Amino acid sequence: MRGGIRRSVEDRMRRYWGGEPGVARPVMTAVTAPLASLYGLGIRGRNLAFDGGFFPQEDAPIPVVSVGNLAVGGTGKTPTTRWVVDLLRAGGSRPAVVSRGYGEDELLLHRRWNPEVPVIRAPRRIQGVREAADRGCDVAVLDDGFQHRWLARELDLVLLSPAHPFPPRVLPRGPYRERLGGLRRAHLLLVTAKGEGEMTRARALRETLASIPGLPPSHLLSLLPGPWESLSGAPAQPPEGPVLVVGSVARPESVRALLEETGVSCMDVLAFPDHHPYREGDVEEILRRARGRMVVTTEKDAVKLDVFRDRLPSVRVLTLRVEAGSARGPSALEAVTAMLEALRGSGGAGKGEEGAG
Question: What's the pTM value of the predicted model, to 2 decimals?
Answer without folding.
Answer: 0.91
